[in-house]
Specification:
Oligomer: heterodimer
Largest sheet of chain B: none
Number of helices of chain B: 6
Strand content of chain A: under 5%
Strand order of the largest sheet of chain A: 1-2
Radius of gyration of chain B: 24 Å
Number of domains of chain B: 2
Number of helices of chain A: 22
Number of strands of chain A: 2
Distance between the termini of chain A: 65 Å
Largest interface: A-B, 66 and 74 residues
Number of strands of chain B: 0
Strand content of chain B: under 5%
Shape of chain B: flat
Helix content of chain B: 55-70%
């Protein structure tokens, strides 16, 4: 406990340095704008703005990007409440009661409760992150290659299971990602693989051009048809405060959303989206008047908004403690750290305490900054909604080019980004998830190295994965999820056979 | 005649059948490309081992998507209204990729913004010109002078 507090003091000494603090504030401001703008979610925002971190050190980079992430989570609620247009996926559920409240003239309290709930949830989840990540990292020091193989299998299966769409499609995308991560020189034997004679591919395909292509450019291609600037309700500052009944009704949902969001956030996948829906369902189930939900119940804003902000901190745990990103955003932030020569994993907290604890402290600071800035500046932020998307997207495209070229000064990376943009656009049409591609790509080198090392250790026996307790436990978890996800297919056995025969 | 019939057949195919087939052929492609690499054995897996395992899993997943996708939406029914716009934006991106180093970042960024804002989105010149020039020169200055990231100077040579 005392050691944690000492480390936190170290973190605050880093985060409150004016040159670092300014990036936490900047990240929160930019993130809020990203969250407010419909058509550009936190993932696309973090991807497109990644180049801003290239001239910074690792601490400032991660603080800036994380600020953009949770700033976007805050900002996403604004458009949901004022226009019934979710700024990002996790705010979809806020539209239901938030907009209904706005129509009844209670937009201010809805925005205030969303911001205060997000602040409480964000702060609580950072405390939990602070206490969970270091012991988890110490535990992960016991991991050898077989445990890493089992952990990655669990992460990918959970990600596919949690993603809203087809598990088969998500798994296929993770496999495509693994394949992309294997391009280049094999680390164990020095053979070049799938480089088609291009020397630049020797180091492999970069995560940045793939990430910016899939999440930045593909998002722009899919949203570029959005033409008009939007009409918004503009609340006045004096109307922001909730009344006594609204406060009372919100406290329980904020508390439950915070706890729920943090635990759901630990799981790989779009946990911040899932957490907001689960929280809404829980609040509706617990309510004495469930019929009020959808008609302007403040609990329907307080719970989901707290849950999705709490989930953002939970999301960081596996990336910081294990080096395993649990979602697209953490994969991009991991890539940003790797560009600066820092590899998150079990040794990260021990080797880079200034970055880890500076990051933790910056999250406290960021949550406070967001609370202070978001409510008074709400009028300013909604002004961004007046800029038509047709003016914004060309600027985003220039940023994509700037970002990708800045990493290695490579034109090949620009080709990869453009190709990935088109690939991502097509995959979205065919209802495929894009996040597993980047996660698979980031994890591919670890998976391959660990699998081959495990087989060398066991002289070719796969039993090594069931003889070690941690690996076995992780694999059992994977199997349970796999069976659960295959249940519908097994139940539909006969129609499945019919489908095969009709296709022949 | 045959060609248009073939296209029609593709358009009325369930989308998952098409994506499943593409994944299956991608898996075959990976196996084909791995053939020149040593496979090794289980005691000492070679560089082709993991790609081969992945290709088998990807091929299997592709086949499963194909056979379970009979009821997925038909290809023509997917929303393609934005396809023309996408082709223009991708075309502009390809132009920018090809010309970034010979022409330089400031010129290419100005042209890209000018084309997309002015020609594609038909915005007024009094918005397009200052925005395109200001953003390209401003971002060039920011990245080169502040972030110390080298960007191609190209024709301007400054």
């Amino acid at each position: 406990m005392q050691e944690t507090l000492q480390n936190l003091l170290l973190g605050f000494s880093v985060a409150l340095t004016p040159s670092v603090f300014i990036y936490a504030v900047l990240g929160c401001l930019v993130g809020t704008v990203v969250g407010v703008l419909p058509g550009i979610g936190p993932l696309a925002g973090v991807s497109i703005l990644l180049p801003l971190t290239f001239g910074l050190d690792a601490t400032k980079s991660v603080i800036l990007l994380a600020g953009i992430y949770y700033g976007a989570m805050y900002g996403g609620s604004t458009t949901s409440i004022l226009m019934r247009i979710p700024g990002e996926a996790a705010s979809v559920v806020t539209c239901l009661d938030g907009y209904a409240m706005a129509q009844k003239g209670r937009a201010g309290p809805a925005l205030a409760i969303a911001a205060i709930g997000s602040f409480i949830a964000g702060t609580f989840s950072v405390v939990a992150l602070m206490f969970v990540a270091p012991p988890l990292a110490r535990f992960a020091l016991r991991f050898g290659p077989p445990e890493y193989v089992a952990l990655i299998a669990l992460a990918i299966i959970t990600l596919s299971y949690m993603s809203g769409g087809s598990m088969l499609k998500s798994t296929a995308m993770a496999l495509v990602g693994f394949f992309l991560g294997m391009v280049g020189i094999d680390r164990l034997t020095g053979y070049s693989r799938f480089d088609f004679g291009l020397a630049e591919l020797g180091d492999g395909i970069g995560v940045v051009p793939v990430g910016i292509g899939l999440f930045g450019l593909a998002e722009i291609l899919s949203s570029a048809e959005t033409k008009a600037a939007l009409q918004v309700i503009r609340p006045r500052l004096k109307d922001l405060l909730p009344n006594r009944d609204e406060w009372r009704a919100s406290l329980g949902p904020i508390g439950r959303g915070t706890v729920l969001g943090f635990f759901i956030g630990l799981m790989p996948g779009p946990s911040h989206v899932v957490s907001s829906f689960v929280s809404y369902a829980v609040e509706r189930r617990l309510s004495k008047h469930p019929e009020r939900f959808g008609q302007g119940a403040i609990e329907g804003v307080a719970g989901p908004e707290s849950a999705n902000n709490s989930a953002t901190s939970g999301h960081f745990i596996s990336m910081l403690a294990l080096g395993i990103p649990s979602g697209g955003i953490t994969a991009i932030i991991l890539a940003a750290l790797m560009i600066h020569g820092v590899s998150p994993g079990p040794l990260f907290i021990r080797e880079h305490p200034d970055i880890f604890w500076g990051f933790i402290a910056s999250m406290y600071v960021g949550n406070l900054v967001l609370l202070i800035l978001n409510l008074p500046l709400i009028g300013l932020f909604v002004n961004f909604l007046r800029i038509p998307y047709v003016v914004l997207y060309p600027i985003f495209i220039v940023f994509c080019f700037l970002g990708v070229y800045s990493v290695n000064g490579s034109v090949l990376d620009l080709w990869i980004m453009t190709g990935m943009g088109l690939f991502g656009y097509s995959l979205r049409k065919f209802d495929f998830e894009l996040v597993p591609i980047v996660i698979g790509m980031v994890l591919a080198p670890i998976l391959e190295l660990s699998l081959r090392q495990s087989l060398i250790m066991s002289r070719g026996s796969y039993l090594i994965f069931v003889q070690r307790p941690i690996a076995l436990a992780l694999l059992v978890g994977s199997m349970i999820l796999l069976v659960l996800s295959l249940m519908p297919l097994i139940r539909r056995g006969t129609s499945w056979i019919r489908a095969i025969t009709s296709s022949v | 005649m045959f060609k248009s019939l073939k296209i029609q057949r593709i358009l009325v195919s369930p989308s998952d059948r098409i994506s499943g087939s593409v994944l299956f052929f991608l898996a075959l492609g990976i196996l084909w490309e791995s053939r020149g690499l040593p496979m090794g054995n289980l005691q000492l897996p070679g560089p082709a081992f993991m790609p081969a395992v992945l290709a088998i899993l990807l091929g299997t997943t592709g086949v499963l998507i194909l056979i379970t996708g009979a009821n997925s939406p038909r290809l023509y029914s997917l929303r393609w209204e934005d396809a023309k716009h996408t082709v223009i934006v991708v075309g502009a991106s390809i132009f920018a990729t090809l010309t970034l180093e010979p022409l330089g970042y400031p010129i290419v960024a100005t042209l890209l913004l000018g084309f997309l804002l002015g020609a594609v989105e038909r915005q007024k010149l009094r918005l397009v010109l200052p925005l395109a020039l200001g953003l390209s020169i401003g971002s060039y200055w920011l990245f080169v002078s502040i972030f110390r990231v080298p960007l191609p100077k190209g024709l301007l040579g400054f």
